[in-house]
Amino acid sequence: MTEELLIPDEVRQHPAWARLNDQLGWYDHKSGVNQKRYKQIQGAQIILATSIPVFSLIGAASGQWITDILGASVAILAGFQQLGNYNDYG
Asked: What pTM does this model have?
């Protein structure tokens, strides 16, 4: 059984209480957004990185261009992830 904290009415009425709850809500939302972006970028990196060996089997000039573009894309995504600090979730 979970017991709720009993918060006195004078605390609930205080402006600082409203501000605290507002900030907690903002951080909760921001954490969810960052977590989603992190997972999207990680998923794209995995797909692109694992397709590089497949396209390298083509062997023609077009295969080289494709693998170059895929490798650059992985590096760009890693840069965006680092720039946004999405792995911090907050």
From this structure: 0.69
